[in-house]
Write a structure and sequence with these properties.
The complex is a heterodimer of chains A (297) and B (358).
Chain A (H helix, E strand, L loop, with lengths): L16 H22 L1 E5 L2 E4 L3 H7 L2 H31 L5 H11 L6 H11 L6 H8 L10 H29 L3 H9 L4 H29 L3 H6 L11 H11 L3 H28 L11
Antiparallel strand pairs in A: 1-2
Helix pairs in contact in A: 1-12, 2-12, 3-7, 3-9, 7-9, 9-12, 11-12
Chain B lengths: L3 E8 L10 E10 L4 E5 L6 H9 L6 E6 L2 E2 L5 H4 L2 E3 L11 H11 L4 H14 L15 H13 L7 E4 L7 H18 L3 E5 L2 H7 L2 E6 L2 E6 L1 H6 L4 H6 L6 E8 L2 E4 L2 E3 L10 E7 L5 E3 L6 E11 L4 E7 L2 E7 L11 E5 L6 E4 L2 E2 L2
Parallel strand pairs in B: 3-8, 3-9, 6-7, 7-8
Antiparallel strand pairs in B: 1-2, 1-4, 4-5, 9-10, 11-12, 11-14, 12-13, 14-20, 15-19, 16-17, 16-19, 17-18, 20-21
Helix pairs in contact in B: 3-4, 3-5
The chains are: A mainly alpha (297), B alpha+beta (358).
């Protein structure tokens, strides 16, 4: 046999079989089930009708869905708009070394360790005007606050709850990014006469970019799929002021047992998240690194 | 530009009790305006600490730093108006090369037209004119380091420019070029330049005055010739030269110098205090001489290395190895031969307690 021809051993295919089986059972088959539901009308377990793209067409025209999608987008971007700057501020304010830094790290991470439904319960009690500190306090200040009655109050409470729960994540990521900046950068900036703002803008922020990007993607995906916390706090109400996409989907699939439309919408939901993450990721990759026009000749 | 006077000591720990607690032992030093200096020493000898004290990044735990007689011990780097270039390239990732170079000037609110002119000059000097509009983070390490150098040199009115082993990341060919460039810049701009390095070639070619440091203290300040001809401390003898100076422990008395059972006559007019004295001679000044010549010792050749331009000979006498740099015709020697080496001549130095005997 000539040395240039590699020996071929078809048996090697068997080695990837375990992976294929795992992926098939964990991802491909459940997904195909959803695809299967999305193109059929399931009348009873034994009676099914193939309906083609009808469910997709119907769900895309669903007014309720439009409302939920819009609320979801506004909510997710509000979450990012608040948590990102707040998280960066938190990271900048955290002490860099010593026992204080360890203590602060633990305290800051506390909210991340609380299960979602407990967070919902905490805020449900916290916001009550009879026994909750926040609700009672706001009421005492003469503010007519009610997360069960007022849609704006409900929406703001859900936002506040998410900010409380997840800003520490951005803070911790930013803190990790800050700690990885070599001292020489701060020394050089100090010698170059940079102000604090300039150090933040030209040294700290660019160096935190990588971790913040991960933070933004995580927070976007998570907030886009938010379910438990508003479900526990407001149950999607009042009206449907805090009914976001997941809850809308659950109502369809489990509440009304409309498996066809729910499956069709699941696929669309998945594609929306994929698309948004793709756009966000590419935009953030490019921010601050493109060649500048003009400038010095 | 300014004259820098140092009279200080520094310890990183709070309550230094012994010498080893100090990063810098008490020292007094003056850097004249417009001079080119090098701080030379092995890693961990305190040279970077000394540099950071001059730039104001570190405040000395004792003593003062004077710029032109003004006490700046607790002044910030900005107040001292100093420029410093670090070992590894520091660039502002989001800025172009031109913006990077302009940054120290912009922060000091220099008029835009002047900035443009100055950045152009510096880029020209560093041969980076073609890359001015590129984003700095996309460049190679040596180009980034050139930017760092440029940022150090861009301000024409600095008190001094401090370099902390700036050419570590640059490859040898470019290193040579940049070093010449720095010398040229020194001539053109008449800036006070202080250069930290552990590479003696770099220090000796760059600086007019070299400060040799070890273990937190400065052991000699002098020109390249001083350090070579009359090392004032055995450390300097060891550290400068390749290979370093040969040292033999012996005794001196009125008859001459005694070593390995032999007595060598001292050069005419030379007087040594009696007692334990180390003899130091550079490999370059060891001569191959006929048997029983004055000032010579018999030795056994242990190794002969032909380096092309010269021969490095290692020979032994009573457990001590001497290295000699000889002309190429010494190649006929082979290990085991007995040779007579002249170690006593006018270049020979003597050391008592590691310090030179004048």
């Amino acid at each position: 046999m000539s040395a240039t021809i590699k020996p071929v051993n078809q048996k090697a295919w068997f080695l990837i079989l375990p992976v294929l089986i795992c992926v098939a059972f964990s991802a491909v088959m459940p997904l195909m089930t959803v695809v299967n539901y999305s193109v059929q009308d399931i009348i009873s377990p034994t009676q099914q009708v193939f309906v083609g793209t009808e469910w997709f067409a119907a769900i895309m025209r669903d007014e309720e869905l439009h409302g939920a999608l819009l609320r979801q987008l506004v909510f997710s971007f509000s979450v990012l708009a608040v948590e990102l700057p707040l998280g960066i501020l938190l990271a900048l304010a955290m002490p860099a070394e010593g026992w204080k830094s360890s203590a602060v790290l633990v305290i800051v991470s506390l909210s991340l360790l609380i299960p979602w439904n407990v967070v919902g319960t905490i805020w449900q009690i916290f916001g009550r005007i009879d026994i909750g500190l926040m609700g009672y306090g706001l009421h005492a200040l003469g503010i007519d606050y009610s997360y069960t009655g007022n849609p704006v109050d409900a929406w703001l409470t859900v936002l506040l709850m998410d900010v409380w729960h997840w800003t520490p994540l951005i803070g911790l990521l930013g803190y990790a990014g800050l700690r990885s900046i070599p001292d020489a950068y701060y020394q050089a900036a100090s010698i170059d006469g940079a102000s604090k703002a300039a150090v933040f803008w030209y040294v700290q922020l660019p160096k935190m970019r990588g971790v913040l990007m991960i933070g933004v993607l995580l927070r976007f995906m998570d907030s886009f799929m938010i379910y438990t916390e508003p479900f526990v706090l407001t149950g999607g109400g009042p009206g449907n002021a805090t009914t976001f996409l997941s809850q809308f989907l659950t109502q369809k699939a489990v509440g009304q047992f409309d498996l066809g439309p729910a499956a069709a919408f699941s696929l669309i939901y998945f594609l929306i998240i994929l698309l948004m993450c793709f756009i966000l990721y590419n935009w953030m990759q490019r921010v601050g690194t493109q060649e500048k026009e003009g400038g010095h000749e | 530009m300014a004259r820098i006077d140092l009279d200080l000591a520094h310890a990183y720990s709070k309550n230094p009790t012994q010498d080893s607690d100090y990063a810098l032992l008490p020292l007094k030093m003056t850097f004249d305006e417009g001079g080119a200096y090098a701080l030379l020493g092995p890693s961990g000898c305190g040279k970077t600490t000394l540099l950071n004290i001059m730039s104001g990044l570190v405040t000395p735990s004792q003593g003062t730093v004077l710029f032109d007689g003004r006490d700046v011990t607790s002044a910030t780097p900005q107040e001292r108006n100093i420029a410093q270039v670090f070992q590894f390239p520091v660039i502002y990732d989001t800025m172009t090369v031109a913006e990077n170079l302009a940054f120290p000037l912009r922060n000091r609110k220099v008029p835009e037209a002047q900035i443009k002119k100055r950045v152009g000059e510096i880029a020209e000097m560093l041969e980076m004119s073609g890359q001015l509009n590129q984003i700095a983070s996309n460049l190679a390490a040596d180009a980034k380091q050139k930017i760092s150098l440029g940022r150090g040199l861009v301000r024409p009115d600095v008190s001094a420019v401090l370099f902390d082993e700036p050419l570590t990341v640059i490859d040898p060919h470019l290193k040579w070029q940049l070093r010449r460039k720095l010398k040229q810049i020194h001539h053109e701009l008449k800036l006070t330049l202080i250069y930290v390095t552990h590479d003696q070639v770099e220090a000796l070619t760059f600086a007019q005055q070299v400060v040799v440091m070890t273990r937190g203290r400065s052991v000699q300040v002098g020109s390249a010739a001083d350090l070579f001809e009359r090392p004032s401390h055995t450390f300097v003898g060891h550290f400068i030269g390749s290979p370093g100076m040969n040292f033999f422990p012996g005794q001196a008395n009125s008859e001459g110098y005694h070593f390995a059972g032999r007595t060598l006559a001292l050069p005419a007019g030379r007087v040594l205090p009696a007692g334990e004295i180390k003899l130091g001679v550079r490999p370059e000044y060891v001569e191959l001489v006929p048997a029983d010549s004055a000032g010579a010792l018999p030795m056994t050749v242990s190794m002969v290395q032909d380096v092309g331009t010269h021969v490095m000979l290692s020979a032994k006498i009573a457990d001590f190895t001497i290295k000699a740099r000889l002309s190429s015709d010494a190649t006929q020697l082979s290990p085991g031969d007995t040779v007579w080496m002249k170690v006593m001549n006018e270049h020979t130095c003597f050391y008592k307690n590691e310090e030179i005997v004048p």
